[in-house]
Amino acid sequence: ISLLGLALSLPHTPFYHTAGKVKSKPPKNIFQNPYSSVAFQANICYIKKNIWYALQKTLKGGIAIAKKDPDFPTRQKLIETAISAFLEKGFALTSYHMISTAAGVGISSLSNYFPSKEDLLLLLVERMAGYQLENISELFSGKPSLFAYCAEIAVELTLCEQDDKARELYVAAYSLPKTLDFIKQFSYKKSMALLGDRFPDWTEQDFYEIEIATTAIVFGFLMERCNARFSVKQKINRTLDNLLKLYDVGAEEREEVIAQVLDLDLNDCAEKIMAWVLEKERVKSADYLQNGG
Predict the structure, then answer these.
(1) What's 23's DSSP letter?
(2) Which residue of 1, 3, 240, 249 has the smallest Cβ count within 10 Å?
């Protein structure tokens, strides 16, 4: 079970766990209005708190805990090396041996930490998801939850059009079993947090089943390259329109939200997200070295 997936499924999250199905209705005093920026901030706050709770409970991840781990420097070096190689050469052209050599770590040691390239990609996807949760409230502060849901997907599509290597990473993440499972698990629970108040009678299973379809839609459009007849804005518009239909959002509201998203400087948002990921990894290592483990 992924760490972030665990964080979003803990019993103290804002969802009611019952025998069999899990009700998604959050406490009314916090999530009264799904369009409220306060509600959006509260949802993100709950998710972030639960992630940290899971880090503490499992004694994995987190700089404070990592400092007590003698394997942290080697593991972090491998992670940084893999991320750099994936972004520079692409996932397919980055070999296991290449990561081992660049990091100065033997193949056997690398396999002890990460048995396959997919395991390294899974960790990158998990961290990117966590970093986006940290960054999303800053980028889309004061916006309603539905807007934030759409904007994040729009940024993802924009990033993949900006950078072929990033696109390849996303394609691999949506194609490989471990990473695809994490994406679905993480995404449906995030959707519950952001959109749960719109559907008070939906269960966790309802959100999961919708996520099967939304994942397929996003991946399908992500695979389709833009050209003179199919611009990035057209791709984003069509993707979001189909996703919002699955959530029974009316035509007028769909048009309004999508128009607001398309008014964003999506290229700038995409660049900030990627810079945020790289900076967070650099800070992890710098903090460890500065504080001496």
Answers:
(1) E
(2) 1
